[in-house]
Amino acid sequence: MNDIRTQEMNLNFGPQHPSTHGVYRGVFTMEGEYITKCVNHIGYLHRGIEKLAESRTYTQFIPYNGRLDYVSGMLNEEAYVRTVEKLMGISDQVPERAEYIRVIMAELQRIASHLVFYSSMALDMAGFTPWTYGFRERDTILDLFEMAAGSRMMPNYMRFGGVAADLNEEFMPALRKLLDIMPKCMEEYHGILTGNEIFQARTKGVAPLSREKALNYGISGPSARASGIDYDLRRDEPYGIYDRFKFNVPVRQTGDTLDRYMVRMDEIAESVKILEQAYRELPEGPVLAKVPKIIKPPAGEVYNRIEHSKGHLGFHIVSDGTPKPYRLRICSPCFVNVAIFEEMAVGLHLQDAVVAFASLDIVLGEIDR
Amino acid sequence: MDKKIDRQALVAFLNEKMDAQAEVFEDNTEGSIKVSRLKLGETMQELRENPQYKFDVLMNLSSVDYPENFTVIYHLFSIAHKHYLTVKVEITKENPCWVPSVSSVWKAAQVHEREVFDLMGILFNDHPDLRRILLPEDFAGHPLRKDFTQQAD
């Protein structure tokens, strides 16, 4: 390095670069092939959703959640609806069947979100075939959402005290079919990408993240579990009916790019396990509790979080007793997770930085809100 | 979900150790403690390092614009003990209004504090890099304040 005279160069990575997964812009200072400094620029997709929430009623705000993390709309809605239920004190009134349907939807959405991660990470390494494989099953899941909620990507399906509509008769057979092919599909995913020599060489040991640093930066979700933080809200603080299901929490130790990838792939298999149990135990009954037409929570505030596909998604709602929230703060996992990239990118090749960025599983709609 | 800690004992401990002027804050659904802003940095350092409490994660940092004051709210969580704490700091609406930064205690606070500065206009002393994060550099005003008028919708 030192015997060749190099010149520092600033490289704008984004906001329209296809491998930034949206409108993220990173300004890299390059020393030859290596990155010596990285500055995040976010906010290109800022729509002011927190300000909008103050002029909408609680019910009117539900569709906005699908626009946050636009590849896991169901989970955003579940987080918001559970927070408002906790604020009103009606969490225990949700009917049994609605709770099961929520679990089914949440886990399907988690699989769909991780499949987008799998596909886009493969595409960032110029693997086009895995991209088509991942999106094939995601499409099946979106068909299921269309049967239940009437729309594919932004479902607007959760309601305070339950869900919007009961499942129709074609939903359960279609879910059964998906569960039957899923193990075979997992073999295909691993066969085509995980075992690939080029993939292994590009990811093993790249951009490791220590446990202490991950805790201090507030990293959560699969990225944190890859660094050895053994914490999953579904198992450790069960909300809803998650305490009735048996599943493992995949944890890995080194926190490099391969581990972050493997944790998410293992989570797909665990989600399939939860879906199998929910499919067997789904009871009959109503899907919506009797809640007032106009939602007026008592004055006070609440902070509640759930295990989102990217990490811990929390809502902090301050109510003053009127039908509109006084202040609503969305604490999104991606907003916190993207901050560590400034430190992670230093010392990497440009090609490795692209893969490390993909392994954080960033969605810009949630960062910018 | 909520493993409650004994807030009375915690407040007494903080007041004795560093004169934090802490008090138990009761008028909401969650239960929190209130700390004076002068001792905020030391208080947070103590909460993170003390083995009895060991709050190693800053989950959320938000701010509320009440009619009489601004409130900055810290939601803390401990992986080791699995308990929660909400800490509040009240600031009068002077100009400029400021709180000490806690980004030296938790790195996670850096982006949160930049966002609160951007949207609410609260300054954080000793923050390493306090710039706007979501809005353009030349934007005028702070949108989440209640006196920032929206377009009619």
Automatic annotation (TrEMBL), chain B:
Natural source organism: Dehalobacter restrictus
Keywords: Cell membrane, Membrane, NAD, Quinone, Translocase, Transport
Gene name per UniProt: nuoC
Annotated family: Belongs to the complex I 30 kDa subunit family.
Protein name: NADH-quinone oxidoreductase subunit C
GO CC aspect terms: plasma membrane
Functional summary from the UniProt entry: NDH-1 shuttles electrons from NADH, via FMN and iron-sulfur (Fe-S) centers, to quinones in the respiratory chain. The immediate electron acceptor for the enzyme in this species is believed to be a menaquinone. Couples the redox reaction to proton translocation (for every two electrons transferred, four hydrogen ions are translocated across the cytoplasmic membrane), and thus conserves the redox energy in a proton gradient.
Bilayer disposition of the protein: Peripheral membrane protein
All residue ranges annotated as the NADH:ubiquinone oxidoreductase 30kDa subunit domain in the record: 33-151
Annotated HAMAP family: NDH1_NuoC (MF_01357)
EC number: 7.1.1.-
Predominant subcellular localization, coarse grouping: membrane
Subunit structure: NDH-1 is composed of 14 different subunits. Subunits NuoB, C, D, E, F, and G constitute the peripheral sector of the complex.
Chemical reaction(s) catalysed: a quinone + NADH + 5 H(+)(in) = a quinol + NAD(+) + 4 H(+)(out)
Subcellular location(s) of the protein: Cell membrane
Stored Pfam families: Complex1_30kDa
GO molecular function: NADH dehydrogenase (quinone) (non-electrogenic) activity; NADH dehydrogenase (ubiquinone) activity; quinone binding
Top-level enzyme category: translocase
